Every structure is written in structure tokens, then in C-alpha cells.
């Protein structure tokens, strides 16, 4: 029996890309989104191993000029670097860091537009839970009940779809972020270009008596048409059980904390933060994760993709890339079910058999990166990273990088 009613709950990157995949393959679906306007997780995002999967969702024609269309600086010019607090480059890649090729630093809004193009997204519809006791799934929403053959929770970290079946099991880690966004001139941006044209992370130095280090991340979000104004975001992050344990609440006190923390970094990072307008709203973020549960059982009537299935820390820049793999792996199975080659239950089981262990690997690796980065590197580790970084720079890709940066997909 062909699939008559697939409901995608959540119009983030995962839900939208899946909708595109199903549309391209003539599988009927509805996609609902709780927000009336887009609320984006972060401002910009590194796309790398997920790009070929986006291409499978959108089709090759719509990928023409994709990089220029979505990139933060409207060009293919991208790169990433990690540097010590002395300004020494450890790893620098031409193209976004990846062991499988180069990528793009994407502006979230433009990526969203590319994924939304041509879709009928029903906004203002919040799914509050699912009932799988009958033959079909009953999805409850603020706009009434929706009956579907299959509900796909693409509703992010705090997935209501997942919670209604599994309960709430999101882990709040002890790594926290403090970030601000501001405009800078092209001349100010130029000081960062020696590291990367788009985004760079500087590792803080461990001070005597301290057990952890802060890091600062610089990322371009957007560039004005005349290339004179760069909108950027800076993110300070640390393990609050090791350093800067007392975190204030007011915006003025958060600015003060950011000033103190960044005083251990050199320019241009220091002045980037210290010269942020003191009235700018700063965001304090708690890094969270959700480890896919092997006991998940949506009875072949409910499944999960993206952060709803596997939310990971951002320290490997992989969450959205994995979401794109989910989209294609699930999409392939649903096309077979729609053609009546397999049942929906078999399709979902086949998808989950691949996605759950892959998600577990990714969540674990991103967790490890989060803590390694904030506990500080030993001298030996720093030297080895530098060697690996040089090899990466000159070869573009080295298989043994995986010894340090295990592949998760
Ligand atoms: C600071 C930061 C930096 C990051 N950097 C990178 C990076 O460089 N590379 C990378 O690959 N990943 C990165 N990530 C991870 C990436 O943002 C996520 O993996 C990605 O957004 C997941 O997409 P998603 O569609 O699954 O979930 P989301 O982006 O969370 O989208 C979920 C959507 O569902 C909607 N929704 C929620 N609940 C409901 C409901 N009950 N009913 C209906 N709709 C609902 C939400 O409004 C939202 O639109 C980063 C994350 C953060 C926080």
C-alpha cells in the first residue's frame, strides 16, 4: 500500500531537506513547524560531508551555485583554523575542516531559504505528542489532531515527538558558551583572514592553578553587498566546573565576564570582544546533547531524524551534516515503501538500524571534543596536532587524521 500520509514534525534543516527528498520522489507528505517565523540554531554552520546528501535531496539542478548562494561571504572562499593563544596555527584547512573534502561555511538564513524553496511549510503548528496505540499514528497539535501513516520527528533537541514516546533524556553538559554578534569593518576582518576567511577557533592558555581553558570562536555570519561590513559572531566557551564557575545573570555582568575572560587572548580576538557595544545582548548557552537510545521503539509508525535523534555538541561541526545523511537514508527507504516494495515498518527499521549507531558514534565523538578542547592540550598533543595540521594543509586530506579525529559517518 503506498504511503498516503507522512507527517514531518519540524521545519528545521532536517525536516525541510527530507520534505525536498520526498517531493522529488513523489511521496506525499505534510510538514509542520511550530514557529511562525524561523528561529535559527546559531548563525552560521559548516557544511562538509553533508553536502552530497543535500544534493540528493535538492537534485543537481538546484545545487548549481549552491556554495555561493548559501555561503557567509557569497563566495567559495572558506577555510578553518585552530590557533594557540600565541597565534600559532595548529590546523588550517583550505575549505571547511573535513577528512573527506572541502565544504562551505553557510549562512543559516540562506541555507534555510535554499531548503525551503518550493515547499508548502505549515507554520504555527506545534506537535505536542503522538499516540501510536492504533493502526495509524495520531499526532496531537495546538491546531488539532493529525492522522498519519508515519510521523517523523524532526523537531530538534527537545523533540516533543521523542519525549511522548521515550520521556525526556537530554543531557546538559558542563560546557557553557557566552556569545555576541556585531558588525565590523573589512579592515577589522582582515586581521582574522591570515587564519581563515570565514571562521577560526583560538585555544586559551591554561593559567597557573587552573584546570581548564576557555576557547574563543570567530565566525563570519554575513557580508554586506559592497564587502565593507562583516557581521560576525564571537563565542567564548569553557567548562564551568573548572573555571569561571560563578556565572552572572545580567547582561552588564556577562559583558564584564567576557571582558575578563578575553583579556588572556591577544588581539584581534581581545578587542573584538572588548569593543562589542556594551548594550549588545549577549547569549549564555548551555551545551546539550541527546544520545540515541538503542531501545527506541516507535513501532515503525514514528521515527526521528536530525537533532531529535542525535543532538551533539557543536565542537566537531557535524550535527547538521549527520541530519542530511538521515534524510537520504530514511528517504531511500520511504521511496521503497511508497512503491510497495517493502512495508513502512521494514523501511523504518532499516533506516534506524543505520542511523542509531551512527548517531551514537557522532554524539560520543562530539562530546569528547567538547571536553578535550576545554581541558587544554598537553605540549605533546599540541606538537602532534601541528604536524597533522601541516600534513592536512599540504595534502588537503590525510587518512591518518582519523587517528586524531575519528570519522563518525
Ligand atoms: C552554536 C551551534 C553551532 C553549530 N554548528 C554546526 C556546524 O558547524 N555544523 C553542523 O553540522 N552542525 C552544527 N550545529 C548543529 C546544527 O545546528 C543542528 O544539528 C541542526 O540545526 C539540526 O537540525 P534539525 O532540523 O534536526 O533541528 P533544529 O535545527 O533544532 O530544527 C527543529 C525545528 O523543529 C521545530 N520544532 C521544534 N519543536 C516542534 C514541535 N513540537 N512541533 C513542530 N515544530 C517543532 C523548531 O522550531 C525548528 O524549526 C551547531 C549547533 C549550534 C547550537
TrEMBL record:
InterPro entries: FAD-bd (IPR002938), FAD/NAD-bd_sf (IPR036188). Residues 5-365 form the FAD-binding domain. The keyword Flavoprotein applies. GO terms for molecular function: FAD binding; monooxygenase activity. Keywords: FAD, Flavoprotein, Monooxygenase, Oxidoreductase. Pathway: Secondary metabolite biosynthesis. Transmembrane segments: none annotated. Signal peptide: none annotated. Coiled coil: none annotated. PANTHER family: FAD-DEPENDENT MONOOXYGENASE APTC, MONOOXYGENASE, FAD-BINDING. This is FAD-binding domain-containing protein.
